Amino acid sequence: MVSESKIHLFFIFALPFLLQIHLSAGQNAVKAAYWSADSEFPVSGIDSSLFTHLFCAFADLDPQTNRVIVSSANEARFSTFTQTVQQKNPSVMTLLSIGGGNASQDDFASMVSQSSSRKSFIDSSISLARSYGFHGLDLDWEYPNTTARMSNLGLLLNEWRAAVASESTTSGNPPLLLSAAVFRNKDYYTIDYPIQAISNSLDWINVMAYDFYGPDWSPTSTGPPAALYNPGTQISGDYGITSWIQAGVPSTQMVLGFPFYGWAWRLLNANNNGLFAPANGSALPGEGSIGYGQIKTFINQNGATTVYNATVVSNYCYSGTTWIGYDDTESISAKVSYAKGKNLLGYFAWHAGADDNWTLSKQASSTWGA
């Protein structure tokens, strides 16, 4: 009998080689979207024919046990997610996404800080993915904000890949896909991501190239929430993608993210209504987020003026003192073309339920092509 520790060491040292074999087999293009349990959009309503991959969001981290769990409210939808979306597209692949923007920073930081708690997280995530029929796992930690947390994230990713490889060998099943949703840049405000671990251990990263401007954190002026370019600044999708490539993550391990929602500001002067116009916070209750379908309704009901700015690659509309920055068919098409031109693996959207009769999803899919 070979000891468990020797098997573990084999996978640790053979990891980069095994992953390169896995990746060189040719990952198909990723045309993806997240489905959010909080959106109340039914899983059965997803037109999965427009996607190659769908993310089910979000599973949770139990801070007491460091295990990945699904709440009782979500269990029925999560456990049948794959079989539901495969009814319209039998070849679509699904990933269980863990965490999300509302997840506790401290809980994730505590989990990654010890090998035993990382193991609890990893083993439970693999078990849950297999039992629910998912094809992969996605980590959405927003965001590791210290050097120690980034370093420990690297340990988690390496150990996760080793465990996935080991489980695949033992079970005879194809290895689970591993991805992570990451900040727009290769660093989180100067704190570098663990680039080597990301390159070695993940099938790809989902680069969240959005939420650059919003009325909650940039209330005094409007802005392009997901600008592909932003002359004179480092706040753009292109800057972020370039930073990841220059840091050493292959372009073919990157997926460009864009939003199926926008942000609504209240203009100080209805006649001053361009990009970076003076504003006074949100035009809507709460933080000012509004789904693409709702934006289209607002435009139609208010006769709003719509503008596409090709310089930054962003759309906006305004009526009275309400100003909304968002992505429409023009910016989505330009971003998908950009992703292809940069030899990225593909694109993803947050989130499927915010689209308007699949307008943006269809635009993205047709622009990428077969």
Describe this structure in words.
Helix 1 packs across helix 6, helix 6 runs parallel beside helix 7 and helix 10 (329-341) runs parallel beside helix 11 (359-368). The N and C termini lie far apart (48 Å). The radius of gyration is 21 Å and the shape is globular. Helices cover 36% and strands 23% of the residues. The relative contact order is 0.12. Mean pLDDT is 94; it is low at 1-18 and 20-25. It has an eight-stranded parallel barrel with strand order 1-2-4-5-6-9-10-17, surrounded by six helices. Strands 11, 12, 13, 14, 15 and 16 form a six-stranded antiparallel β-sheet that branches. Strands 7-8 form a two-stranded antiparallel sheet. The chain is built from eleven helices and 17 strands. It is an alpha/beta fold. It has helices spanning 4-24, 75-79, 81-85, 105-112, 115-132, 147-171, 195-201, 237-247, 292-302, 329-341, 359-368; strands at residues 30-36, 53-61, 68-69, 93-99, 136-140, 177-182, 187-188, 191-192, 204-207, 254-259, 261-267, 279-282, 289-291, 305-309, 314-319, 322-326, 346-350.
How would you concisely characterize the structure shown here?
By secondary structure, this protein is α/β, with parallel strands linked by helices.
For this entry, give a set of tags.
370 residues; alpha/beta; eight-stranded parallel barrel; six-stranded antiparallel β-sheet; 17 strands; globular; disordered N terminus
Q: Helix coverage percent of residues?
A: 25-40%
Query: Measured on Cα atoms, how large is the radius of gyration?
Result: 21 Å
Helix and strand string, N-terminal first? Answer: HEEEHHEHHEHEEEHEHEEEEHEEEHEH
Strand order in the largest sheet: 1-2-4-5-6-9-10-17
Give the overall form: globular
**Low-pLDDT runs:** 1-18, 20-25
| Number of discrete helical segments | 11
Give the structural class: alpha/beta
Q: Main sheet?
A: 8 strands, parallel, barrel
